[in-house]
Design a protein that fits this description.
This protein has 467 residues and is α+β, with helices and mostly antiparallel strands. It is 21% helix and 19% strand. It has helices at residues 2-9, 70-81, 135-154, 188-193, 233-247, 293-297, 323-326, 331-338, 375-379, 423-433, 462-465; strands at residues 11-15, 54-55, 58-59, 85-89, 121-129, 181-186, 224-230, 251-260, 312-321, 390-391, 394-400, 406-416, 440-450. Bound molecules: ligand L6N33NVT and fe (ii) ion. Residues 275, 277, 279, 281-284, 319, 321, 338, 340, 357, 375-376, 379-381, 409-410, 412, 423, 426-427, 430, 440 line the site of the ligand C=CC1=C(C)c2cc3[nH]c(cc4nc(cc5[nH]c(cc1n2)c(C)c5CCC(=O)O)C(CCC(=O)O)=C4C)c(C)c3C=C. It is found in: Cell envelope.
Length: 467
Amino acid sequence: MAKATKAAKATKTAATTGRASAEPDAGPGVEPDNGPDIDSGTGPGSKSSTEPSTTNGISRRRLLGTAGAAGAAGLAAGAATGAGVSRAVESPATALTTVGSSYIPFEGPRQAGIVEPGQARGHLVAFDLAPGADRRAAAALLRRWSDAVRAMTEAGRAGGPALPAGYDDQVADDAGPSSLTVTFGFGRSFFTRTGLTAQLPEALAPLPDFPSDAIDRRRSDGDLWVQIGADDALVAFHALRVIQKAARDTAEVRWQMNGFNRTPGATARPMTARNLMGQIDGTNNPKPSEPGFDAKVFVPANGSPAWMAGGSYAVVRRIRMLLDSWDHLSVARQERVIGRRKSDGAPLSGGTETTPVGLDTFLPDGSLAIPSDAHVRVAAPASNSGATMLRRPFSYHDGIGADGTPDAGLLFVAWQADPMRGFVPVQRKLDGGDGLTRFLRHETSGLYAVPGGVGPGEYVGQRLLEG
Ligand SMILES: C=CC1=C(C)c2cc3[nH]c(cc4nc(cc5[nH]c(cc1n2)c(C)c5CCC(=O)O)C(CCC(=O)O)=C4C)c(C)c3C=C
Ligand SMILES: [Fe+2]
């Protein structure tokens, strides 16, 4: 595929994935114990443009690689440890950092934005088809979107094509690709709206209601879902604007959520990111290098329906963290809620961050080292008949809510080959028995079928829409 060809041309490097005696713990309310006009169907293909766009006479691509040194230091450390998921990175001769020049191809057997480390900035957006927009209109939209993303990910690369005028509001000028990915999915309602119910995947059955859910349906679901990620805020915003403008009369925004992660190069060496509770979050994600990874995360080539081959299912939950309550717990108690040390993410059963969690380890007093209601115990595949998912969240912070507490938490995005063997059984178990539940509120929910990737000239979802 083109993905492999492009990757081969680029310099390869590694970057980190960015990852009982149940002592009764204080819940909320207890005493503190510690202080352009984008043309329908005629958008540019990846190879069609020739000259780079210029700003004040300076080519966007000539400006790559002129930022600080932290990224390069982090990159070197990443390569030395060999940790994490490898990704293609271009290295212009003058580069002092790789943040801007990091490039993730749009084309490939799988959509980008699933296995790559979570970017520093993310936008999650759901669209509903406009009244009267049919399958044909939806197909034209997916082509416009795919062409736009192809152009945006290629533009700004050293030696890459220019961003065509129709896409360029100059917001992303001067920046490189910055690990931009845009990932597209279909919600259940898309199939009824477009008369494609015969192609509706079984796996897209509505998620069950979980007892502790507090779901706002207006900010949930949607016909189409788009996940945008980039390591530069302007590159991410630019992609968002282009996607929204390209939707034009065919689809309107149903909801939008904005998130973030740690910026690459902010730590002395690549490390698993922390969430807004301060925990190292992502350690025990399945790794692409592990046997069985693909089967857990992606629909197999002979999977059903056929158009989902190479695709995946994304569960998206906006999970508010009840931070004021959480902050009242001592660090020791917080660690027992999770089952890992806050400072370095090591399991309470001993070792370092990457030491396997000892679910059967006992303390000298005979109690379980990982409490019976600790999050990692209740969520572990071993506690859920092997159920596994790839978690790739963004944090969010939208100021102070009506209740006077931070409207902040996790835009939880979980990827799996089948939600019934991933998110659903695990969330059922967490909802009843996880010590963390009392510090969380699931406020929105969505499930999307994310088809496989595209080759040159193809658009995402083509096999569904033209099958
Ligand atoms: C339904 C699945 C899960 C939800 C919802 C969820 C929410 C959630 N998790 C954290 C913080 C951490 N989670 C950690 C591990 C972990 N979480 C899940 C699943 C859900 N989490 C799994 C499957 C695992 C791995 C368990 C294992 O096999 O060990 C951790 C520990 C570090 C890690 O392994 O990533 C933290 C910390 C928050 C804050 C949260 C909701 C806001
Ligand atoms: Fe978790």
